[in-house]
Write a structure and sequence with these properties.
Blueprint lengths: L1 E6 L5 E7 L1 H4 L5 H14 L59 H17 L3 E4 L9 H10 L6 E5 L5 H8 L6 E4 L5 H5 L3 E5 H11 L2 H5 L3
Parallel strand pairs: 1-3, 3-6, 4-5, 4-6
Antiparallel strand pairs: 1-2
């Protein structure tokens, strides 16, 4: 087991909790993380780029000029790719760029990324984040009190009030706040610091370690 220091919003030590080594004690899996990041970015592509071929271009079917006798090259249609405004040869068409990654691989990639940030000393656990109302000023004061960079990923639990936390950090360009249901390896590796609440650690243990399956002996 790994012992984690839990702090309050002012940076004072609150208590210690134990976390499974399977969550924060994995080594850096370069190939697995590469595949996880590649799949995440591929799934974010819209794939809506599209061009028209000669059959889709609106133009007259009239032959530009007669076949012979003009001294010019023969042409049959102004929709030809050789003409300005004509169709495009082998142009892009709407395409699904999505990549599928097995659930166990996704979860292990997230755990490996979290373990990397923990081993670097850039993962910090806070008891909870209380925001009576969305305030960017308070969000900045929390990062400063906890000695975290502005380039920090805040992982909040799945609660109704978490929107106040997300709204508070939304005006900090380099910071980002996501819930445990949105966590992914790309965002973890894309931020220098990780701020996570105690309840989020518990939720991630349930999600990433498949506690329910372990209880069933699967």
């Amino acid at each position: 087991m790994i012992e984690l220091n839990v702090k309050d919003e002012e940076g004072n030590l609150s208590e210690e909790i134990e976390v499974s080594e399977d969550l924060l004690g994995l080594e850096f899996h370069n190939d697995l993380l590469y595949r996880a990041v590649k799949a995440y970015r591929a799934n974010g592509r819209a794939g809506t780029a599209s061009t028209k071929d000669r059959s889709e271009v609106k133009s007259s079917n009239r032959k530009p000029w007669r076949q012979k006798g003009t001294g010019r090259a023969r042409h049959g249609s102004r929709a030809s790719p050789l003409w300005s405004g004509g169709g495009v040869i082998f142009g892009p068409k709407p395409k699904d760029h999505g990549m599928d990654l097995p659930k166990k691989m996704r979860h292990k990639a997230i755990r490996s990324a979290l373990s990397t940030r923990y081993s670097e000393g850039n993962l910090l656990v806070v008891e909870e984040l209380k925001f009576e109302e969305p305030k960017t000023k308070k969000a900045l004061s929390v990062l400063e009190a906890l000695d975290l960079p502005k380039d920090t990923l805040i992982i909040s639990p799945q609660e109704e009030d978490s929107w106040k936390v997300q709204k508070s950090f939304s005006n900090i360009p380099t910071a980002k706040c996501i819930s445990t249901s949105q966590i992914n390896a790309y965002e973890i590796l894309n931020h220098e610091g990780i701020l996570i609440t105690r309840k989020s650690i518990e939720e991630l243990s349930e999600i990433l370690l498949d506690r329910k399956l372990e209880a069933q002996g699967v």
